[in-house]
Amino acid sequence: MRGTSSIFRKAPLPAGFGAAAFYFAAPAVVTLAQLYYIRSVHCYFLYLLPLPGWAAAAAALPLLVFEYAATRLIEARRLGPGPAVWPQLAGRMLFLLALSALFFWYPLRAYGQPSIFAPLIGLWHYVFWITWTASPAAAFILGLAIAAAYWLLPFRRAAFRLTVTVFLPGAATAALFLLLYFYPSSPLRGWRRPPAELEKVFPAADYRGPKGERWPEGVMFPHDLYADPGDGWAALSLGATIGRKDVPGPTFAWINLRRPEFRAFYENSQVRRFSSECPGKLYFAPWHGNYLLEYVPGADAVKRLPLPASVAGWPVEELFAVHNACGRVYAVNNLNPALFVLDSGGKLLRSLSLAEAGLVETGGAVFQVKRNPRRHTLLISVYGRDPAARPGARRLIWLTQYLGVRPGRRVFELDERTLALVNASDPSRAFMDLALSPDGRRIYAPAIFTPDIYKLDAETLKITGIMRAPSHVRKLEFSADGKYLYAGSYLGGEVVVYDAASSGKLGSFYVTPRVEALGATKKYLYIAGAGGLFRIANEKIVSALSR
To answer: Buried (b) or exposed (e) across 420-429, using 16+ Cβ within 10 A?
Structure first.
């Protein structure tokens, strides 16, 4: 008991300002250095270098040596060697070994396979940034609590360094994520009022399904929307990525805008992105399935269009986006990067493995497929290993992501008939969406994790400019007349309006938490988010802007 209780005793405070500053900053600096090293090596193992499994053990060794040196420099100097130091060191060593298995060994094992977990774990710093900036008030409260714990424990007592610098921020990040995801309208996230010009369309109390049923509670997780050019109806794709599975929610819905009725469809899988160049038919791609859904707006049933169970030896099970080109239907699979082409009757015409075509290696992710009718081409946004990217010796020695890691974050342009590669953008940020200007000359693409919207020349796919935007914009949309570009902020809940000619920001207006879908007609701009489906008349948008 004496050894255990000694952990809680107050360590002697260092004498002198310099020593105090060192011992105050050292725990945080050590943790940040370790996390940066883990992130950098993970990127190399994941994106660039196919290495044997023993490389994971070799990469873990510097972490352990650094931790031992840090312990002797920080805790052992203040507490002396003994039970107050070495048990904690052993715990931190075991934790670093677990992180090495997760971030080093697992990516090597998953190399060349369609694994979503291997790349996702490397995005932890983006998740941290998103969740903490999405709810400033709650983040401030949690940040104060962590700062107090940091002062009392790692600094005053030279103890619990791992708990305070890793476990507590991790738990706070998880809490903030749940707040954003499941309680987006909580007062903890702040109060913002939408403009008076904004109209909530759906769900509403008087809306009923074909059997008189109400819209189910708590299942509004929209991903995309299509608005009828005549403003008679709208369609939403829906689905929660995490949550209760015993109460399945609708995966897409048709909403009558002229009388209060809707059609909800359940596929036991969320539906991600969909787009269409004409209103006669819509196509949806269930996330965990190898088929498409063909839907005639207003109908009570859907038609299933089968897709191959596998492509290039890997399963088709994460369909991310589908585009209806009115005569051709194009769908993309996410993890096992593949493109499918169907005719207007739903017959599969061709399957193309993007990995076998040399565009991105197996394990890459595909976010979007759109068509450029002016050039008769397809635009595909991908994120993953670039087959042509390999680091030089100097970059490998430095082991830094900024010098060495350039994953294949690109937009590819394919001939819509032959699927031959026409053009490719330079490696850049990953693009969650693609918006083609009405004249077909420019492409706008929001970066997933940074506050940028990239402008690309549609002829060359060269980046011609960067527009400032909220972090984590998931959807862009042009006004029907081409004068404005709208960007939906998933974190802030507002719609940002840009002048399409000058790319200048005109202002923004708040709509609802987690804005993820936009649709524009000649009369309205439609917005879907956690609060439902909203619309605002085009002539009222400018007056609703806050600058």
So the answer is: eebbbbeebb
Set out the domains of the chain in order of their start, with CATH numbers: 2-187 (no CATH), 193-267+469-547 (no CATH), 272-434 (2.120.10.30)
Tokens linked to 104 = 């080093």
Taking Cα atoms as reference points, which of 58, 154, 48 lies closest to residue 111?
48
d(CA 164, CA 31): 10
Among the ranges given (10-19, 50-59, 196-205, 309-318), the one the predictor scored with the smallest mean pLDDT: 10-19
The closest alpha carbon to 401, from 37, 49, 34, belongs to 37
Give the DSSP letter of residue 407: -
For a pLDDT cut of 70, what percent of the chain falls above it? 91
Cis amide prior to 203 (ω within 30 degrees): yes
∠ CA 95-98-104, nearest 5°, is 130
**Environment class of residue 378 by beta-carbon count within 10 Å: exposed (0-12), middle (13-18) or buried (19+)?**
buried
- pTM, rounded to two decimals: 0.90
In this structure, are residues 408 and 427 in contact, taking their beta carbons and an 8 Å threshold? yes
CA–CA separation, 436 vs 310, rounded Å? 31
Task: Calculate the CA 40 to chain-centre distance.
Answer: 20
Nearest partner of 272 among 237, 245, 243, judged by Cα: 237
The string of pLDDT tens digits covering residues 469-525 is 998 899 999 999 999 999 999 999 999 999 999 999 999 999 999 999 999 999 999
Report whether 178 contacts 148 (CB < 8 A).
no
3-50 confidence digits (pLDDT tens): 444 555 567 767 778 888 888 999 999 999 999 999 888 887 877 767
Number of C-beta neighbours around residue 167 at 10 A: 12
CB-based burial label for 217 (10 Å; 0-12, 13-18, 19+) = exposed
Instruction: Read off the pLDDT of each residue in 56-79 and give the average, rounded to a whole number.
Output: 93
The region that residue 327 occupies, defined by phi over 0 for left and psi between -120 and 50 for alpha, beta otherwise, is: left
Distances from the Cα of 470 to the Cαs of 382, 454, 480, 485, in angstroms?
A: 22, 13, 23, 14
Dmax (CA) of the chain: 80
Which pLDDT score, from 0 to 100, does residue 409 have?
Answer: 73
| Stretch 457-476: mean pLDDT | 92
Paired strand residues for 199: 535
| Residue 320 predicted with pLDDT over 60 | yes
Helix (H, G, I), strand (E, B) or coil at 389: coil
pLDDT at 244: 58
Question: Could you identify the residue written with the tokens 């497929």?
Answer: 369
Phi, then psi, of 17 in degrees rounded to 5: -65, -45
